[in-house]
Design goal:
This protein is 48% helix and 24% strand. The protein is an alpha+beta fold. Helix 2 packs antiparallel against helix 3, helix 3 packs antiparallel against helix 4 and helix 4 packs antiparallel against helix 5. A four-stranded antiparallel beta sheet has the order 4-1-8-7. It has a four-stranded antiparallel beta sheet with strand order 3-2-5-6. Strand 7 and strand 8 form a beta hairpin. It contains five helices and eight strands.
Length: 206
């Protein structure tokens, strides 16, 4: 799927006039007002869009929009449309998933053999991490950014809880969990900042 952000701008009040109709070849996509912002989800096979406003018709290819990052179409003297393809954000960090999953498995295994008073909580925390991550790995549909961030916050919270529950006597396991947690947090913060940069400053080439 491709995500296209468009903004219609009018120099004067065009209320009550025609709406702008959007077509992909002969297929109707959407109808927008003469002064609005909206996002369009387009199939990956769509190569060009046609905008119809009254008797005016303009066609533009997605390749043109992608090449210039941002493209404007002048429908009339008073009405224009600004188009840009929203960058695709890749959420799943394989390194974080593997580290968190291994930490969850380690916590579950440790809870089975330990005599700690917190073994039930360690087992529950480790199991929670495993379930959360397996769901994200096996889920075949796109994961919403907010849902992904929420699951990662829960995973990091569980990792921190496991780290503090493991007694200092088991310093080897505690160190492994601590290093894994630190790495996951660092990489997640970096990806979170990158996501915000793409959303709010999509034309920054860095």
């Amino acid at each position: 799927m491709k995500k296209l952000h468009l903004t219609t701008t009018s120099k004067m009040n065009l209320a009550g006039n025609y709406s702008v109709f959007i077509y992909a070849e002969t297929n109707f996509i959407n109808e927008v007002d003469t002064s609005s912002q909206t996002n369009l989800l387009l199939d990956h096979t769509v190569e060009e869009l046609t905008f119809v406003y009254g008797n005016v018709q303009r066609t533009i290819s997605l390749a043109q929009i992608n090449e210039k990052k941002k493209q404007s179409i002048q429908l009339t003297e008073d009405l224009s449309i600004e188009l840009r393809l929203v960058p695709r954000i890749y959420l799943l960090d394989q390194t974080n998933l593997i580290l968190s999953l291994l930490s969850g498995l380690l916590a579950v295994a440790y809870s089975i053999f330990t005599t700690s008073n917190w073994k039930e909580l360690l087992f529950l925390s480790g199991s929670t991490i495993i379930v959360l991550l397996l769901f994200m790995i096996l889920y075949k549909h796109p994961i919403h950014t907010g849902h992904y961030n929420l699951r990662m916050f829960m995973t990091i919270s569980a990792l921190l809880l496991i780290f503090f529950l493991i007694p200092i006597e088991n310093w080897t396991i505690k160190t492994l969990i601590g290093l894994s947690t630190f790495t996951v947090i660092t990489r997640f913060i970096k990806d979170y900042q990158r996501t915000l940069a793409l959303v709010y400053n999509p034309f920054n080439k860095s």
